[in-house]
């Protein structure tokens, strides 16, 4: 019983949770969502560019996309955030005059997600049957128009579950930007929990942060499963009434 009480005091101190949850709602949750959404949008645009470069007929473009993707996917996220935040941060601050590391956090997350999303798009586009491109070219479309109007939309549709999974990963990776020392008004869920845990000497604020992340990610995980099932099975077809059943029904009404 003493062990259970000790664990409860360490992880389930309701007073410590109650003190930190309002700040997580007011500051941490909005900042986490802003980091994930903005980085996801920029990363998606960058990823599409990398995917098109990766399948380009231009060897230089393919080489640039390959090198970028290999480096950003090969580095640990924490190392990428530190290199971009502390390596390029002073240069950016010198030109902009801003002391906030928030833009560098967005840049680091965007560059990382762009590498992964680029590979997702590339695999989706290359999974489309080559006959689709040949058929559109036979109808008089140029290569660019065929890719833009026929091949790319089909490829994107096939990788929608993977894209949502990448957004879930972005939400979790946003917890690493605390390394850049965000201002009090810019701190995300994990940083607020970390600060509260350091102040109280209790781990319950970490548990509160974990609950916030689970509330964000679990519904998205089920949404991914729903999209995946929908793409594999398609929309259920409406069953037409059987002719014999229709005749019987009319007879019963008469």
Automatic annotation (TrEMBL):
Record bears the keyword Cell membrane: yes
Family annotation (PROSITE patterns): ABC_TM1
Topology with respect to the bilayer: Multi-pass membrane protein
Annotated TM spans: 33-53, 74-92, 104-121, 167-185, 205-227
InterPro entries for the chain: AA_ABC_transptr_permease_3TM, ArtM/GltK/GlnP/TcyL/YhdX-like, MetI-like, MetI-like_sf
Record's keyword terms, sorted: Amino-acid transport, Cell membrane, Membrane, Transmembrane, Transmembrane helix, Transport
Residue ranges occupied by any ABC transmembrane type-1 domain in the UniProt entry: 29-224
PANTHER family named among the record's database cross-references: GLUTAMINE TRANSPORT SYSTEM PERMEASE PROTEIN GLNP, MEMBRANE COMPONENT OF AMINO ACID ABC TRANSPORTER
Protein known as: Polar amino acid transport system permease protein
Organism whose genome encodes this protein: Pseudarthrobacter defluvii
């Amino acid at each position: 019983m003493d062990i259970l009480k000790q664990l409860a005091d360490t992880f389930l101190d309701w007073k410590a949770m109650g003190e930190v949850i309002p700040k997580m709602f007011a500051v941490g949750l909005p900042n986490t969502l802003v980091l994930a959404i903005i980085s996801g949008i920029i990363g998606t645009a960058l990823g599409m560019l990398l995917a098109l470069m990766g399948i380009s007929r231009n060897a230089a473009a393919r080489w640039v996309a390959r090198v970028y993707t290999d480096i950003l996917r090969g580095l640990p996220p924490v190392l990428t955030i530190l290199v971009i935040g502390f390596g390029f941060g002073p240069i950016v601050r010198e030109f902009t005059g801003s002391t906030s590391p928030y833009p560098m956090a967005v840049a680091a997350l965007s560059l990382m997600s762009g590498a992964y999303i680029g590979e997702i798009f590339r695999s989706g586009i290359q999974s489309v049957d080559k006959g689709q491109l040949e058929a559109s070219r036979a109808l008089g479309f140029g290569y660019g128009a065929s890719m833009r109007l026929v091949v790319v939309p089909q490829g994107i549709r096939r990788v929608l579950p993977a894209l949502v999974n990448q957004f879930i990963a972005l939400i979790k990776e946003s917890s690493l930007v605390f390394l850049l020392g965000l201002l009090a008004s810019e701190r995300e869920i994990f940083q607020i929990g970390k600060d509260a845990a350091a102040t109280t000497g209790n781990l319950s604020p970490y548990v509160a942060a974990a609950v916030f992340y689970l509330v964000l990610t679990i519904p998205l995980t089920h949404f991914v499963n729903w999209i995946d099932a929908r793409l594999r099975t398609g929309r259920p077809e409406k069953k037409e009434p059987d002719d014999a059943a229709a005749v019987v029904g009319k007879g019963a009404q008469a």
